[in-house]
Amino acid sequence: VHIVESGGGLVQPGGSLRLSCVASGFPFRIVAMSWFRQIPGKERELVAAISGAGDPIKYSDSVNGRFTISRDNAKNTVYLQMDTLKPEDTAVYFCNRFVTLVPWGQGTQVTVAS
Fold first, then answer.
1. Which residues of 2-12 are buried (b: 16+ CB within 10 A; e: fewer)?
2. Is residue 23 packed enough to be buried (19+ CB in 10 Å), middle (13-18) or exposed (0-12)?
3. In whole angstroms, what is the distance from residue 89 CA to residue 4 CA?
4. 50 and 34 in contact (C-beta within 8 Å)?
5. What is the b/e burial string over 68-101, where b = at least 16 CB atoms within 10 angstroms of the residue's CB?
6. Closest by Cα among 70, 4, 86, 72 to 34
7. Hey, how many other C-beta atoms are within 10 angstroms of the C-beta on 36?
8. Helices H, strands E: what count in the chain?
């Protein structure tokens, strides 16, 4: 099993970023996937989840209406489109299976600051 996240960076408040996650080692197209984030000193938090068919399952209250999760099963890739970013969205973002977690990737740092 291998997960690689990318797409993070520094962005100003109100800006946008699109994160990508490529996963391998399991039957991707039938597995629900999710994005998490972690701020240093705090627990990892679920941000969004999507079914294997591509239907969003859940968004956290803090990102609902601003973030959009999607996937491309042909590319074994999950995306997180993040719009109207806020400083409190600053975190390391990870993806993983929604149920039955597998080893974590390295994550991708998102920093929202002016």
1. ebebbbbeebe
2. buried
3. 20
4. yes
5. bbebeeeebbbbbebeebeeebbbbbbbbbbeee
6. 70
7. 21
8. 0, 10
Residue with tokens 């996963």, as numbered in its chain: 23
Percent of the chain with pLDDT over 70: 100
pLDDT digits (tens, 9 = 90+) for 43-89: 999 999 999 999 999 999 999 999 999 999 999 999 999 999 999 99
Which of 26, 27, 35 lies closest to 78 in space, CA to CA? 35
Q: How far apart are CA 97 and CA 103, in angstroms?
A: 10
Rounded Cα distance between 70 and 54, Å, is 6
Alpha-helical runs (H) found in the chain: none
Cα dihedral across residues 98, 22, 4, 66: positive or negative? negative
